[in-house]
Amino acid sequence: MPSPILSRIGWHRPRVRLWAGAGVVTLGFLIALEVAARRYGLPGPITNQAKEVVFAPASGPLLYAGLALTMVVLTWRQRFVALVAALGIDAAVALVRWLADATVTGGHAFGNGALWVVLGCAVTALTRRTGAERILLLKGAGLGLLLVAGRKTGDAWLLITAKAHPAVLDPYVAVADHALGNPSWLVGRAVRASGPVGAHLLDWVYAQLAVAAVVVALYQLRHVSAERRFPKHHLVRTFLLIGLLGPGIYMIFPVVGPIFTYGAGAFGTGGEQWAIAPLWPDTLPPIGPPKPWTYDGITPRNCMPSLHTAWATVIFLHSRKGPRVLRFAGTFWLVATLTATLGFGYHYGIDLVAGVVFAVTVEAGLRSFDRGWDRAGLRLVAHGVVVFAAVLAASRYLSVDMARHPLVFGPLLLLAMASVLHGYARTTKRWAEPEPRTAVTRPPEPRLEAA
Q: Which of 15, 208, 220, 356 has the highest count of CB atoms within 10 angstroms of its CB?
């Protein structure tokens, strides 16, 4: 006999079981990552997230972005109460820190209130709501917490990549990047020439990518409160899945970036003592047989593919159906992110090509799953996977050939990326077209003949 509690939740419904299963898998993944991080003597994502309930958060804007996602399921009155409560808690916490003379270093002085309110929504859903309303509020709180947990999960992954892979494959990618004209060196000089104003703007865009994603997601989810349901597909799903899958590829293809391997490092890691040579961005790396290079144990191996490029790409794709200002913002964020990733020396050009292909393939897979797998969806995803694997394999095993024949391999790389984009645009356009109606022909009615 089914439990009354499970009946009230609606456990018999397939989508409820799917969400519950996804929650269990996510929790198991976080626990596994926590254990793996502690094996290297590092705090895991669960520990880091729990600390932010009391201590200064690493990113206050991200916590408020998570609160904004949670509030899509609330009424306007409830949103006002939630926001006032979050700001009030932040003010109280700031007062306690001031009285205790506790200075905030390496984080933000606000954001705890937003996390408290999101957790409060989850508790309210479990204790004060029933049925569909409970499920909806849990989805909203889960969405906000997943955004924040995704950041913590990514941080833990990056530290693990540095500990697990002492050697990096930057020399291979740097040589192969000659096929594209070494754009990081070119854009790096351009950003340096733009002065502090251009550098600060690009740095802000690069750092607040998750907030830009939330703005687009809020537009997509603007009707959730009125309709009491989430749309089948929205940006947050793709954004989180990219962050989940991408670090796994870092473990296969560890690369740190030109500013580290050929420069002075960044974010307090690396340095000229770890670099192959101080070349970036003034002198191109030489063309020669590459080999793995040992780097420090703290710099993340997070270049191949460029997840910032992947995230900016899906922000651009999801902003296409919005108003003009949102489409403009999506285009600006994509261009600025690509400029920042290259201009600050965080990525090689091939990283960006791989990031675009990776993003479009993940987006295509989610959309195919939502509408039911068909031949067009399978073909699109398979095409993206093959191109992505080919880019990685060519960078690893054909780097010298790519550098010596840039007029052949450069266009091939761009055409391969363009083929994935074209296939995605063509397939999704066909999916958006209404199904043709077939005319129903009735058999002719028998006529009565005169006697």
A: 356
Distance in angstroms (rounded) separating the CA atoms of residues 82 and 113: 10
Q: What is the three-class DSSP state of 168?
A: strand
Q: Between the CA of residue 153 and those of 49, 148, 274, what are the distances in Å?
A: 10, 9, 27
Tally: H helices and E strands in the chain: 19, 2
CA distance 269 to 346: 13
Give 299-326 pLDDT, tens digit per residue. 999 999 999 999 999 999 999 988 999 9
| pLDDT 10s digits, 246-294 | 888 999 999 999 999 999 988 888 888 999 999 999 999 999 899 999 9
Q: Is the pLDDT of residue 105 over 70?
A: no
Helix, strand, coil percentages, rounded to 5, for the chain:
70, 0, 30
Per-residue tokens: 23: 């929650």
Instruction: Give the per-residue pLDDT at 451.
Output: 40
Dihedral of the alpha carbons of 182, 354, 250, 270, in degrees to the nearest 10: 20
State the Cα–Cα distance between residues 435 and 9, nearest whole angstrom. Answer: 36
Helices (H), 221-348: 224-227, 235-252, 258-261, 307-319, 324-343
The pTM is what? 0.84
Kindly tell me if the per-residue pLDDT of 446 is higher than 60.
no
